[in-house]
Design goal:
This protein has about 100 residues and is of the alpha+beta class. It has three helices and three strands. The protein has a single domain, classed as Arc Repressor Mutant, subunit A (Orthogonal Bundle). The protein starts with 8 loop residues before the first helix and ends in a 21-residue tail after the last strand.
C-alpha cells in the first residue's frame, strides 16, 4: 500500500469512531456486509463509506496499526477488516472458552 504521509491524529480519531460504529454496531447503516466472524471486505467498506467518510486502503491500515487500544484487525492479506471486541451484533470470533483460574 502506498504511504499517505503524515495524517492528522484528529482524522484517525474520526475514522476510528466511524469504523467502530459500522463494524461493531451498524454495518447496515452503510449497506456493509459482515461475514459470520465479523470480517468486512476493505474494498466494500471503502466504496460504501464514501458518502460518510473518505477512506483508502492505506488510511484504513494506518488507523488499524496506530490504534492504541488495538480495536481493529486486518486479515493477513489486508483485504478484510474487523473489530476485536465490543460488538452489539451477533459475531462468532472463533474464541475458545476457557475456565478462569481459581484465583485471579
Amino acid at each position: 500500500m502506498a504511504s499517505t504521509g503524515k495524517i492528522p491524529r484528529s482524522q484517525f480519531g474520526k475514522i476510528s469512531k466511524f469504523l467502530s460504529f459500522v463494524l461493531r454496531h451498524k454495518p447496515d447503516a452503510i449497506g456493509l456486509t459482515l461475514d459470520a466472524q465479523g470480517w468486512a471486505s476493505v474494498s466494500e467498506l471503502i466504496e460504501k463509506a464514501s458518502s460518510e467518510v473518505s477512506l483508502t486502503a492505506d488510511l484504513i491500515k494506518q488507523t488499524v496499526v496506530t490504534n492504541d487500544k488495538h480495536r481493529f484487525s486486518l486479515s493477513a492479506d489486508e483485504q478484510k477488516i474487523r473489530v476485536n471486541q465490543g460488538h452489539s451484533i451477533k459475531i462468532d470470533l472463533d474464541l475458545i472458552p476457557k475456565e478462569p483460574p481459581s484465583i485471579l
